């Protein structure tokens, strides 16, 4: 955005210079037309002087006036050519700056679209993370209830001592294994005695 503002300021400066140069060009063209009119008037004047002056004097006067006017016209044409060249250069600079502004605006729009896509992806990920946390809490809650039931069932059997503190998974597993082994031994004993 800063680059675009800078380019636009440069563009405004160049366009201002271009307007000023065009105005100067119009002024020079006006002066050139005036000089041409003066030249035409002088020609008419010389024609009228032809009858009043001697040919030699008239030719000297005409030559002086023509020389002076040619010099003025040449200077004006030279200035006009310089102004045209400067206008051409300024128009090229203005076109270049306009192209740079358009390119910068295109890149900014492209970055904004990319940023919007990233923002959308971030929101989707946040939503998924929230769903995952809710699911994890639900699973954790169910696991804790299931574990509590296992501990309750394990330590509520005859001959088991209820735990005095927090029971680890290994301790629960050992207690369950003990119950299973005792049942297997009891089952084996009944089998040996012939009891179904």
TrEMBL record:
Keywords: Coiled coil. Residues 4-45, 73-128 form a coiled coil. The keyword Transmembrane does not apply. InterPro entries: CC-FHA_domain. This is CCD27 protein. The lineage of its organism: Eukaryota, Metazoa, Chordata, Craniata, Vertebrata.
């Amino acid at each position: 955005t800063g680059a675009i503002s800078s380019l636009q300021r440069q563009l405004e400066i160049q366009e201002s210079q271009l307007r000023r140069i065009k105005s100067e060009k119009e002024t020079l063209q006006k002066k050139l037309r005036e000089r041409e009119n003066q030249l035409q008037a002088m020609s008419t004047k010389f024609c009228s002087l032809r009858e009043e002056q001697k040919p030699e004097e008239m030719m000297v006067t005409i030559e002086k006036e023509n020389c002076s006017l040619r010099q003025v016209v040449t200077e004006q044409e030279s200035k006009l050519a310089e102004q045209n060249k400067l206008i051409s250069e300024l128009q090229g600079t203005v076109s270049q700056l306009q192209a740079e502004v358009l390119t910068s605006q295109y890149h900014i729009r492209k970055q904004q679209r990319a940023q919007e896509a990233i923002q959308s992806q971030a929101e989707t990920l946040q939503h998924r993370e929230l769903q995952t946390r809710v699911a994890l809490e639900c699973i954790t809650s169910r696991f804790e209830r299931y574990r509590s039931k296992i501990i309750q069932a394990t330590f509520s059997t005859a001959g088991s001592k209820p735990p005095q503190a927090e029971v680890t998974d290994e301790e629960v597993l050992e207690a369950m294994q003990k119950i299973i082994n005792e049942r297997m031994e009891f089952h084996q004993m009944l089998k040996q005695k012939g009891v179904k």
